[in-house]
Amino acid sequence: MSTQTYRPKALRVSTVLISGLAFLSLAIYSASQLAYPESVFADDGYLSYETRHTTIHYLNGSELQSFARGIGRGLVGLFKPSKSDSKEVASKRIESILDEVCKILDMPPPRRKITIRVHSTHDELVRHFSEFDDRRDVPIAFYAYESASVHVSLEDLSDKILAHELAHAVISDYFGKAATERVQEILAKYVDMHF
Q1: What is the DSSP secondary structure assignment for residue 108, as one 8-state letter?
Q2: Cβ–Cβ < 8 Å for 110, 170
Q3: CA 123, CA 5: separation in Å to the nearest integer?
Q4: CATH 3.40.50 is held by the domain 39-194
Q5: How far is CA 139 from CA 62, 87, 104, 116, 159, in A?
Q6: Nearest CA to 95 among 170, 193, 8?
Q7: Which residues of 91-100 are buried (b: 16+ CB within 10 A; e: fewer)?
Q8: Any idea what the Cα angle at residue 163 is, between residues 160 and 166, rounded to 5°?
Q9: Which residues, in sequence order, are bridge partners of residue 94?
Q10: Per-residue b/e over 12-39, b at no fewer than 16 CB within 10 Å?
Q11: 22 has pLDDT over 50
Q12: Domain boundaries, the chain
């Protein structure tokens, strides 16, 4: 008889715990599906193109064409894709680079899309970098943790530079806030050595 008295109470407690865990799991899953904030890219005139794992922000078709050419590997990089093929070429090249980065790091692709901001010149990248960091030594490309975005300039672009910055995005997604900037840089340089 005493077992029957406690059983419904235990059942209610179990139900509440299970419901709470289900709600928490749903909340965590929903938060993980949210896109990174892109308010930084709300500049008028910028176009965007989505690949499987990235969203590229660029000014015009010839900028996307130059981006696709800049991340070409070997002899492929010597040939400029036509404007109509630029999106497909850029998509294939980005996904290929990202796949290789993930294999080198032995990490899965990020759960969220990586934002790639294409800057026409290095000076434009420098101006944008100052919005994120006040250091004097400006890199030729960078990963902004605050907006989870890769920034590259067409003047300095190569497949290796993009691979290094994509490595930061993959590492950041994999470890979250646990990976310090120093750890991130060590792992990104590991990608440099094996890419």
Answers
A1: P
A2: yes
A3: 75
A4: no
A5: 24, 27, 23, 16, 16
A6: 170
A7: bebbeebbeb
A8: 155
A9: none
A10: eeeeeeeeeeeeeeeeeeeeeeeebebe
A11: no
A12: 1-34, 39-194
Residue given tokens 């015009």 in the structure block: 60
What would the two tokens of residue 13 be?
Answer: 């407690």
DSSP 160-187: HHHHHHHHHHHHHHHHGGGS-HHHHHHH
Confidence of residue 145 (pLDDT cuts 50, 70, 90): confident
Read off the pTM: 0.74
Please provide the average confidence, as pLDDT, over all residues in the chain.
78
Check the CA dihedral 131-135-141-145 and report its sign.
Answer: negative
Beta carbons within 10 angstroms of residue 177's beta carbon: 7
Report the distance separating Cα 19 and Cα 53, nearest Å: 33
| pLDDT band (50, 70, 90) for residue 47 | very high
- Distance CA(87)–CA(18), nearest Å, equals 46
